Amino acid sequence: MSRRQNFTTKAVPLNRRWQTPWRRRGSISKSGADRAAPPRAAWAFLAPSLAGVLLFVLFPFADTVRRSFFDPMGGSFVGLANYQSVLANSAFRLAAKNTARFIAVCLPLLLVLSLALALMVRAAKGGGRLFRTTYLVPMAVPVASIALLWQALFAQNGIANSLLSAMGSRPVDFMGTGAAFWVLIFTYLWKNSGYDMILWMAGLDGIPQSLYEAARVDGASNFQCFCHITLPGLLPTLFMTAVLSLLNTFKVFREAYLVAGSYPQTDIYLLQHLFNNWFADLDLGRLSAAAVLVAAVLLTVILLFQRVLNRGDEL
């Protein structure tokens, strides 16, 4: 007897043969329409957040763009005069250079350090709860307390110089020389590494374990699994983490301002210092123009980074 089986098919009436597909299509299109149109309850929950974004973000930014084309004193239209004044200002060029240098150094260091911490915590026994809590402590410390801590560590008679003197070295003016830049970098890494570590761990949890099991069956090493499974699987997390870390670089001003004041050492004179000084002088025209320029640069960088990652996904 051959392997072919004699299958018997039931006779289906003609009306059922034609009606069933149409019924299924109708039900699918209806469910798709339900998914495409969010219910009113969803808009009701989103309405307060959308209203807050419009009221406190979009409308103020639109007003900032408008002010950048007007004279703040007379209210007359000046065109691009405020932008020309900003680009020709030596303080703006210094602050922009220091800010770009700070971002170029801090962002790669933070991404690599936080990813390494996430891998260490994930590999630790018991889920690494103690390490996870330890790395998140800096996020809960108030900014004023951080400023007092840095003053105690890096002042002329602080703890760091006391240790250097005990070892026979000369004291270092950490906040009055080029060392202030590296103190600021250390502050940023110390405060934000725990937050980025949590983001990386969320991305690691989203990678299916079956991929690692299949790779180990094929004889792949841990390094090969990391390069061919972990890193490609973390590309979406990389974009989100990099963007949030980039935005957080503009929040380090609080620590620098509390430690060094409005006019710190030139290596840590950032755009935030310049904006704060122009705001104190009520120079709203140049302040608005500089804010629009910075926002345009940030938006361009984020879009380019997203495009590069999308090309990586296609490859």
TrEMBL record:
Pfam families: BPD_transp_1 (PF00528). Residues 96-305 form the ABC transmembrane type-1 domain. The chain crosses the membrane at residues 41-62, 102-121, 133-154, 174-190, 225-247, 284-305. Its main location: membrane. Belongs to the binding-protein-dependent transport system permease family. It is a multi-pass membrane protein. CDD domains: TM_PBP2 (cd06261). InterPro entries: MetI-like (IPR000515), MetI-like_sf (IPR035906), UgpAE/MalFG_permease (IPR050809). This is Sugar ABC transporter permease. Coiled coil: none annotated. Keywords: Cell membrane, Membrane, Transmembrane, Transmembrane helix, Transport. One of its GO terms (cellular component) is plasma membrane. It is found in: Cell membrane. GO terms for biological process: transmembrane transport.
